[in-house]
Design brief:
The chain is of the alpha+beta class. The protein contains 21 helices and 22 strands. Strand 16 and strand 17 form a beta hairpin. The structure holds adenosine-5'-diphosphate and magnesium ion (MG).
Length: 631
Amino acid sequence: MNKKQKKVLIRIIVSAVLLILIAILTSEKLGIPFLSDNGIVQLILYLIPYFVIGYDILKKAFKGIMNRQVFDENFLMAVATVGAICLGEYREGVAVMLFYQIGELFQSYAVGKSRRNISELMDIRPDYANIEGENGLEQVDPDEVEIGTIIIVSPGEKVPIDGVVVEGNASVNTSALTGESVPRTVSVGDEVISGCINMTGVLKIRTTKEFGESTVSKILELVENSSSKKSRSENFISRFAHYYTPAVCYGALALAVIPPIIRLIMGLPAELGEWIYRALTFLVISCPCALVISIPLSFFAGIGGASKAGVLVKGSNYLEALASVKHIVFDKTGTLTKGIFQVTGVHHSNMERDELLELAAHAESFSSHPIGKSVQAAYGKTIDQSRVTDIEEISGKGVTARVDGRKVAIGNSKLMELYFVPYKDCHDVGTILHIAVDDEYAGHIVISDVLKDNSKDAIKRLNKMGVNHTVMLTGDSKAVADHVAGELGISEVNSELLPGDKVSKVEELLDAKPSKEKLAFVGDGINDAPVLSRADVGIAMGALGSDAAIEAADIVLMDDDPLKIVKAIGISKKCMRIVYENIYFAIGVKLICLLLGALGIANMWLAIFADVGVMVIAVLNAIRALMVKNV
Ligand code: ADP
Ligand code: MG
């Protein structure tokens, strides 16, 4: 609880005690002279707890009137309570204010808690980095560590900054980032991302990024900003409140004035006091607090729960959209397949196998594409990057570079066509990398990828969840693409696409579907950033470490398990269910109470209990969205 909340709590206690004391002292049973029979004395007494508890609400209501923004909850409460006191219902007046404040305190506590929870849950913010100073290890602020510094991470410590291991090996726990509990072993040469916890050995890491650019900072920034993007439901609620509050105020006015006039016309006593009391009750009931607070809180909790499971959602609008996804478009490489290619054949025409592989690996030495990495790995020997110049990566086609001054082009048939190099077809199944050296065809390397273990299961479960249209887009050859799609049970395949074609294909799909159904694109963030941002919901998977993907995506899956997509949709559906439960519940109870109030059955006590009660239940229900274990 923060200072402000503590202060409110003290005010609540003080005024509650005063209210009870005064109620006892002025009761007719005790019959204390001057107290039980003197209205003025009673009024003065009750005004003490009233101001203790309500002065800020009165002030805000007054300010609202001055700024011509009359109709808000403060105004409702001020009018209702002042009105009650004017009618001589002192106790009700004070109690309404008191319960309203209890409700407000409860909600501000719940919101504050869940907001903090989201960052706290993840518990990944590193406090320091160890560097080797003149007198042994020194702890410094991670912000001050420059790129290329060697930092030391002991067992039990968090890796503060992204980098590469230069000494030692250890198993690191990434569960705070990915929700995945199986630790990963790293040794010399491996990349480690900040936010992991070192479980075993001492690691020396050479940093490759500044703290501000490291994975942890990116993630925290993303999570902290997620509340600024409002969902349609939230916008609906604020628009609703905008019309609703004035409407009930006029309704209350009508209730106070019209029936007495009609009664007068009919020759009956007006009973003005009775009708004003009903109108005030109506006002108290109509306060939309439960609704206004529980919706954003549900989204908060949903986003928090998701991040606990390794799914980062950049705003409630995306969580909402995700729940109505009916079409999912997948990138193939690295998304449905592992993106770890095995070289299954090297077919060389006019040079030795080793030479071909050497040229290929060097040309690919700067590539971060899974294909490039696999070729480097297949070569197996150390690569001397100083031999490579003029590197150019041609998205969706391949790479060209000069190796020892020789011009090397490696990529698919489109690349060969680009340079007018005649190429030989290959009958092996797999992705074919043609290689041309000095514009002469030099042979090809056949590589093949394997499906991820969970891809098939994920597609099946998505179908079950109502995502019945799955599409795979790939730059790879038709043979490979059809084979993969067949294995997985994907309904539509488009192959041999350039990154630009993927965008237009997604646009086509967006046009073809009804606008209520949402389309998600899932990619690994390598050369598909434009598609990620074009889809209704862009999901980047396994994106830890890839800044472009984290930036372009709406939802970031922290590891590359396709089942995380299922999980993410499950979480969003649960969250939306809770949001709607709260909306219907709050509006339903309000309507019933309003009706009872207008009929004169509900009094102010019932009204305030209904309001606080609905709020507490709605808030507790909202917090359920945090629990995502078995979604
Ligand atoms: P996907 O759509 O499956 O993710 P990409 O669009 O990334 O595939 O790549 C499409 C094709 O372009 C690959 O199948 C490959 O033939 C070629 N290609 C892309 N990058 C490289 C590279 N670094 N080296 C060789 N070929 C590449
Ligand atoms: Mg790709």
